[in-house]
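Students often ask why we bother encoding 3D structure as a string. The short answer is that it lets us treat folding as translation between two languages. Here is a chain of 325 residues written in the first language.
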Amino acid sequence: MSEEVKTIGVLTSGGDAPGMNAATRAVVRAGIAAGLQVKGIKRGYAGLLNEEIVEMDSRSVAEIIERGGTILYTARCAEFMTEEGQKRGAEICRKHGIDGLVVIGGDGSFRGAGKLAELGINTIGIPGTIDLDIACTDYTIGFDTAINTAVEAIDRIRDTSTSHERVSIIEVMGRHAGYIALWCGIANGAENILIPETYDYDEQKIIEQIIRLRRSGKTHHIIVNAEGVGHTMEMAARIEAATGIETRATILGYMQRGGSPTCKDRVYASIMGAKAVHLLKEGKTKRVVAHQGGEFVDYDIAEALAMTKEIPPDFQTVSQELLRV
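And here it is in the second language, the structure alphabet:
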């Protein structure tokens, strides 16, 4: 058991995700309810090293649960990846009386949290990433909002694609994981879903499919492409040249990160934030809050980082059978 925690800090790190504010709010208010002092650390680990640390109370997090982004801001920090930077971060925590830290972010953020835990700072991670690519959890903060944002955008693109009898390739975020593309492709009824985990890069097969479907009377074609596959603009040009059919590329980009979080992202983020505080209050450290099998649980950070994640078989089956045309 770690020593009793009296002051906790909270930071957001890595890419922003809708629902981070809800998690921050929960950490602050659950911490205060538990009799703890709470401090906010701005701009992630970079802000920690720069001592951008502020006192927080219940009013500090008023009226933020509905806001996208993160009021604490976020930044990348190469210095914190070094042993020297990590040691300095732990020293700064001690200087400001922070003996418990909640880190909201992805795998890279958790690695930093694990290092701080090894240096004596009680640390809990909360999965905040729109990519759903953290293996220990079925849910990550921001994913639900991101896919709903993308689904709505693709529905709109389908309307104009149908009107103009086009092929439309829509690129969604997901550099190393294709979950956003997979969910959107199924939800939008796309004719093709291209994700880094399964795409065989046989573009000729897609071209032949488009030609076959056009001959059978289908007047439009939607391809959802993950960022990790990429080359959307070039792909559109090649498909148009090969088929003679007008082909447009749309890259949704950072619009998927923004916007008011969905109800699910607000509620789950709130529960995760409160659970992180409860774990610290219990003397736990070096843990990651997760959602598995319908329950909120926690894992050792090292164990969580060692886990691997694959596309569920049911999703692969559905993406192949329902989209086969």
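Translate back mentally: Residues 143-164 form the longest helix (22 residues). Keep this in mind for the problem set.
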